[in-house]
Amino acid sequence: MSHRIDSRWHSEHIAIISFQDPPRQNQLCWAAIDELAGTIVQCRERGARIVILASSLAGHWYEHAWLGDLENRLADRPMTGSGMGWFSRNRER
User: What is the pLDDT of residues 3-60, one digit of tens each?
Assistant: First the structure.
């Protein structure tokens, strides 16, 4: 995969998640979405009350979905991941 997701802690309850995918100019492939969702859940489980999303690719923030995965789905070709991270959520019960 060409993307990279890192998390670090600013303080006890504030996590910072940075993302970069230079070849896709920070467009989010399904694999990145799935990993990002998992990273957010991990931060919440470790006690984060605030999660800050940041880009580590100069000139780009988190862009739209990478169209390659959408095209592959329509053509019945392999995708980078499930993309179910778009629909996941983590809330306190």
Answer: 999 999 999 999 999 999 999 999 999 999 999 999 999 999 999 999 999 999 999 9
The H or E element that residue 4 is part of is strand 4-11
- Report how far residue 21's alpha carbon sits from residue 61's, in angstroms, rounded to the nearest whole number: 10
Domains and CATH numbers, the chain: 4-84 (3.90.226.10)
Both tokens of 23, joined, read 């070849």
The reported pTM is 0.82
Amino acid at 65: A
Residue 86 has pLDDT above 80, yes or no: no
Q: Say if residue 48 is exposed, middle or buried (CB neighbours under 10 Å; 0-12, 13-18, 19+).
A: buried
Query: Would you mind telling me the total number of residues written for the chain in this entry?
Result: 93
- Locus of tokens 């979905």: 65
